[in-house]
Amino acid sequence: HTFTCTLSSGTNIACIKYWGKKSVALNTPINSSVSVTLDQKDLKTVTTVVASKSFEKNRLWLNGTEEDVTNSKRFNACVDGVRRMGGERRGEGKEVLVEKGGWGDYKVHVSSMNTFPTAAGLASSAAGYSALVKCLAEVFCASESYPGELSTIARQGSGSACRSLQGGFVAWRMGSKADGSDSMAEQVCNENHWPEMRAVILVISDLKKDTSSTEGMGTSVDTSELLGFRAREGGVVDRRMELIEKAYKERDFEAFGKVTMQDSNQFHATCLDTYPPIFYMNDTSKSVIKIVHAYNAWKGRVAAAYTFDAGPNAVIYCLDDVVDEVLALMLQYYPGRRLDGRYVRDGEAWGRA
Ligand code: DP6
């Protein structure tokens, strides 16, 4: 038998950033983090998984080009992890086709397409690995033995991916167990909680970033004292996690926006504090920061909040009553760049379509 599934997953943009690994082998973080999962209108990964006993090996095509996954620890951790959770699969006449735990001989062929620039710091790995894990779970009829178990598998693909299995506002709790089994995602608010939330994506550069997150966080953990200060128990991140979860629950944009900007700034400060330093933002990114603060000063409140991941591209969170104003401001700033094209993208929070 051959089994197949196609589905998609949205990316997520962190408000409190994950930066630094406690265990590289388990891909567990040195601090908890939290993000908004975007809807699947613009930024998403579409993945097809085909499983068969007759395949010789696991294979992966990324945007149509085959990647060798024989030695990919991340890819194989996801395939093996979900396969181990595999359940009974029945045919249309209810006959048992594969017994629970009977997936050992199956190999997979995977095709994955991104609708946005891969590795430009737009969290493509988050959408990619969460789509992969969701798709594998369907194909292998996997069921969780505790809530969040699948997110512990997605985490091994890419840390941020564990936050994309659910919509809305999703926290990744760092956990404390030595085997990483409690380092998993938890939905703080679902996608219907704050439907006015919008994310405006400014693609400043779609070139591949020059320091991958994995490599960058390794150097930061080794060399940045500021990162230790930020991530320590009861430190900056723990305080901000509490504050932002409360703000999101109460739909308090002022508090949500301020801490989102502060945490983006502190993450980039730890990059500068890394030795040798890492620069993800460029001059255009910095101008966006200035414009947003000028805009907020003019409004007399926090009406828009920027955040930047491991690349120069900006994400601006705002509520939908000001989204046209924010877009107009950015278009004014980027004369000649079009709204419908590659430069400015307007993604809605997931679930609003
Ligand atoms: C700056 O999840 O890409 O976007 O676990 O090594 O795959 P790996 O890292 P990744 O790092 C994301 C870093 C970030 C912040 C965040 O999304 O929380």
UniProtKB/TrEMBL annotation:
Pathway linked to the protein: Steroid biosynthesis; cholesterol biosynthesis
Keywords: ATP-binding, Cholesterol biosynthesis, Cholesterol metabolism, Lipid biosynthesis, Lipid metabolism, Lyase, Membrane, Nucleotide-binding, Steroid biosynthesis, Steroid metabolism, Sterol biosynthesis, Sterol metabolism, Transmembrane, Transmembrane helix
Catalytic activity: (R)-5-diphosphomevalonate + ATP = isopentenyl diphosphate + ADP + phosphate + CO2
GO biological process terms, semicolon-separated: cholesterol biosynthetic process; isopentenyl diphosphate biosynthetic process, mevalonate pathway
Domain Diphosphomevalonate decarboxylase-like N-terminal: from-to ranges: 11-185
A GO MF label: ATP binding
Primary site of residence: plastid
Primary enzyme class: lyase
One GO CC term on file: cytosol
Limits of the Mvd1 C-terminal domain: 199-353
EC number: 4.1.1.33
Entry's localization field: Plastid
Function: Catalyzes the ATP dependent decarboxylation of (R)-5-diphosphomevalonate to form isopentenyl diphosphate (IPP). Functions in the mevalonate (MVA) pathway leading to isopentenyl diphosphate (IPP), a key precursor for the biosynthesis of isoprenoids and sterol synthesis.
Family: Belongs to the diphosphomevalonate decarboxylase family.
Descriptive protein name: Diphosphomevalonate decarboxylase
Organism per entry: Triparma columacea
Lineage: Eukaryota, Sar, Stramenopiles, Ochrophyta, Bolidophyceae
